[in-house]
Specification:
The protein has about 270 residues and is an alpha+beta fold. The chain has one domain. About 35% of the residues lie in helices and about 35% in strands. It is built from six helices and ten strands, in the order H-E-E-E-E-H-E-H-E-H-H-E-E-E-E-H. The strands form two sheets. It has a seven-stranded antiparallel sheet, sandwiched between helices. It has a three-stranded antiparallel sheet with strand order 1-2-3. Strand 8 and strand 9 form a beta hairpin. Helix 1 packs across helix 4 and helix 2 packs antiparallel against helix 5. About 40% of the residues are buried.
Length: about 270
């Protein structure tokens, strides 16, 4: 594989935006998807590979149907990545269709490193990625480090542009809560991210749980992320443990469904 590990890791850490970058893709009921009533999936061509991304149970691909959500995704995505899809709960999507707001209490993002959309990846490459992340992930995720500061500055500019007002965005903490679902096809890490957001003098501290999965699907590397809001910093003690278990189970189940929908990679 021709990936430079440092470049790869920089792309991996941007797990903060969600949704889909403007591009052509198809949303459909996929015959390759797991047999589940009403199951839908989205597909994207990465080089000569057609990759199918199933929607998690109870969720819909939302970037194609929620313009404001799509704007948020584009505004907060790292420039080196292409975001393919984002999912909101069916109730959030229905609320938006009815003219309301999405809670975004639990949501997803699927993306790829733009420069590697057509590159083949092997199980040996996946193992090397895991080794590299274990070695250098803490330094790259450091809120005071150059990578994360650059990521936050990019997101701050994007959010300020779409809201037509100054948004101050910072990251006070990134805590690695450990890896899970480590297989030849996947490597998942659980993170606790604490954001500081200020809009027109109103300051908010926002803790978010995020699972970050590097997934080998049809010989392509895809980033699969799941996010869960924590109600407040005061609620961390009661919400953290069940929240971590919820996101782990959600992520593991969804990753297995994505792999099952792409059988030729098995």
């Amino acid at each position: 594989m021709k990936f430079k590990n440092s470049v790869l890791l920089i792309a991996l850490v941007f797990v903060f935006g969600v949704g889909t970058r403007a591009q052509e893709h198809e949303t459909k009921v996929s015959p390759a998807a797991p047999a589940r009533a009403g199951s839908s999936a989205s597909s994207v061509r990465l080089g000569d590979k057609l990759v199918v991304i199933t929607s998690p149970a109870g969720f819909e691909e939302a970037g194609s149907q929620c313009p404001k959500f799509k704007e948020l995704l584009i505004a907060t995505e790292d420039p080196s990545n292409d975001v393919l899809f984002g999912h909101l709960s069916a109730s959030d999507c229905q609320s938006v269709r009815n003219g309301g707001q999405a809670t975004m209490n639990l949501y997803t993002k699927v993306s790829v490193l733009r420069s590697a959309r057509e590159q083949a990846i092997s199980s040996a490459d996946m193992a090397a990625i895991a080794v590299e992340f274990r070695k250098n992930g803490a330094a790259i995720l450091d809120p005071d480090g150059p990578v994360m500061k650059g990521v936050m500055e990019n997101a701050e500019r994007g959010l300020s542009d779409i809201q037509s007002k100054q948004v101050a965005l910072g990251l006070s903490q990134t805590q690695n809560l450990g890896e899970f679902n480590v297989t030849p096809e996947s490597y998942s890490v659980m993170l606790l991210l604490t954001y500081n957001v200020e809009v027109q003098g109103n300051k908010t501290i926002m803790p978010v749980l995020a699972s970050m999965t590097m997934l080998k699907v049809r010989q392509r590397l895809v980033y699969v992320n799941v996010f869960r809001k924590i109600t407040s910093t005061a609620a961390l003690k009661t919400e953290l443990k069940p929240g971590v278990e919820e996101v782990k189970q959600f992520t593991t189940k969804w990753v297995k469904e994505i792999l099952a929908a792409n059988p030729e990679d098995k």
